[in-house]
Design brief:
Length: 210
């Protein structure tokens, strides 16, 4: 199994695909967005981070790197990882190279999920997540049986505060602006694989990572 990175626009389905790979193949899923959202929102750092997330802006490279390092250090020799949401710019990609060298892990494959803007927008504004079991739903594509309630555990579903149309646009623009150099960086290393993020995505990804 390969260690992988997902690069994709916001709400393209990185989290969904990561969950499937984690469940079926035993991957360790590391999402820097999740690590940032898990910070105590009442702490000074949590407040600073939350304000940036709500505005659709990047959190500083230093803060994200610190959280990522802590998480990567928990990996065992046999663990395979998926990085979801990191790196998001060239500076982060270079930091990651250094970190992986430190912990003796390789980065084997970078998967770029190709999803049109309008699909991402709908996936974002319709997204609902269970705060208890983390199952994801969508009011357009994957409704729960009872509106607003998790099918699996009955908890009231939540909507991410940055999944509004306005914030989505900022997040998408930020992605476009910062990602191109990353794509080139990994293409030059022959690690980049483009995958259709709309049809049979999971099957295609399994074909790449196994
Ligand atoms: P995500 O869950 O990947 O959509 O990330 C949600 C938000 O967390 C992003 O819009 C950023 O504000 C922040 N974030 C997540 N990962 C990073 C990163 N690698 N660098 C900077 N900010 C990040």
């Amino acid at each position: 199994m390969k260690n992988i990175i997902f690069i994709a626009p916001p709400a393209a389905g990185k989290g969904t695909q990561s969950d499937l790979l984690k469940e079926n193949l035993g991957y360790v899923h590391i999402s820097t967005g999740d690590l940032l959202r898990e910070l105590d929102k009442e702490s000074p750092l949590g407040k600073e981070v939350n304000a940036l997330i709500e505005a659709g802006k990047f959190v500083s490279d230093e803060i994200v790197l610190e959280l990522l390092k802590e998480k990567l250090l928990t990996l065992t020799k046999d663990d395979h990882f998926i990085l979801d949401g990191y790196p998001r710019n060239l500076n982060q990609a270079k930091s990651l190279d250094g970190l992986l060298k430190e912990i003796n892990k390789s980065l084997d494959c970078v998967i770029e999920l190709e999803v049109p803007y309008d699909t991402c927008l709908k996936r974002a504004i319709g997204r609902e997540i269970c705060p208890n079991c983390h199952k994801a739903y969508n009011t357009f594509f994957k409704k729960p049986k009872t509106e607003g309630i998790c099918d699996s555990c009955g908890t009231a579903l939540e909507h991410r505060s940055d999944d509004t149309e306005e914030t989505f646009k900022t997040r998408f623009d930020t992605y476009v602006e910062n990602t191109k150099p990353l794509i080139d960086y990994y293409q030059e290393q022959n690690k980049l694989v483009k995958v259709d993020g709309v049809n049979d995505t999971y099957e295609k990804i399994v074909g790449v990572v196994k």
